[in-house]
Amino acid sequence: MQEALRNLVLKLVGCPYIWGGGNPWTGFDCSGFLVWVFQVFAQLPSGDWTAQELHDRFAAMLNRGEYMVGLGDLVFYGAGPDRITHVMLGLGNGLVIGASGGGHTTTTIDEARRRGAQVKVKPITYRSDAVDCARTSELFK
């Protein structure tokens, strides 16, 4: 299942970031990307989940302070465990993938293009506010 996960998420690179988006046809925001991927693999009930709600949902799998993430792990960013503002999916080798570069005003594909807001692969350290990592890779074995 891990190879299928890697193949799927890498095919989504370049998909536009759209605030509130939750599918590859109209675009994703950060949590919408992860919810869609997890639901494809039946690892999350249907619903619209924020980054904070995903953090809280996977609280039992959190590994604070350790960011050696594997394929399928979640990395949460923000001002603290109760103020999560962003989430990405681990690819392994110090990389994460997810929808980034936009914000609440990124509501059209044209605006996403202007901002370069899209699904991207980045180093886990591309932001300095990593808060937690959830070992959700176990769900994809």
Describe this structure as you would to a colleague.
The chain has one domain: endopeptidase domain like (from Nostoc punctiforme) (endopeptidase fold (from Nostoc punctiforme), Alpha-Beta Complex), CATH 3.90.1720.10. Helices cover 25% and strands 25% of the residues. It has four helices and seven strands. A five-stranded antiparallel β-sheet has the order 6-5-4-3-7. The protein has a two-stranded antiparallel ribbon with strand order 1-2. Strand 3 and strand 4 (84-92) form a beta hairpin. It is globular and about 40 Å long. The mean pLDDT is 93.
From the structure above, extract its key features:
7 strands, 141 residues, two-stranded antiparallel sheet, endopeptidase fold (from Nostoc punctiforme), alpha+beta
